[in-house]
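Summary for the funding panel

The consortium committed to producing paired sequence-structure records for every protein in the target list. Below we show the first two records in order, beginning with the earlier of the two.
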Amino acid sequence: MQRVPGVDRGRVVLYALSTCGWCARTKELLTDLGVGFSYVYVDLLAGEERDRVVREVERWNPRVSFPTVVIDEAKVIVGFREEEIREAVGARHSE
């Protein structure tokens, strides 16, 4: 997991693929909003670590699609859903 420093909006985790454009947009959005978050490029992992992270993603998103954002281990957003992400981290367009 890589950590991006920023405002604490709860535990925000982005599961992504290094080659995924929507994943890049999601990471950029969270960064632009100044939210502190962790992310992992699942496709760059190997072996047991990769298996463990895939099982983690599967727990939140049975289809194991990307990007998957998990907030406070309660709210899950699958795909680049800008408004939903903004709302979940408390950052509206007006901010």
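The next record, for a separate protein in the list, is shown here:
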Amino acid sequence: MRITGDHAELAVEGRLDVRTAADARAVLHEAVDGGRGDLVLDLGRLDSWDATGLGVIMGTHRRAGRLGRRLVLRAVPLQLQRLLVATRLHRILAIEGAVREPGGATLPGSGADAEALPAAGAALPGGGSAPWPAPARA
């Protein structure tokens, strides 16, 4: 894992998992503590992640909020977008680009320039269907 950038914009490269979480947390928290305004986290070169890595992102989000800053995710890989939607974390995190909820609704504040998630049950490239169930109707 490699993180480059400054107190306003960082790029994560490689893996963000249990093995790299402590180092990533230290770098991200230092960036949050040392800057002002939005902190953009570019995930375009992120190869893999696990729950611990996702926890680092959420912890950074919470820390930024306590300091009056906002963590903004940029170039979120499609698989991570799916995970954020499945866990409903897309409703909490600021994400650049279009992220769609199951059913195809675009989230408020999402741009139309990013790759959107398919609707629940929609065919995915290479076969298969979207991994989440359709939302229950009350």
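Regarding this second record: DSSP finds three helices and five strands in the chain. The helical segments are 21-33, 51-66, 78-86.
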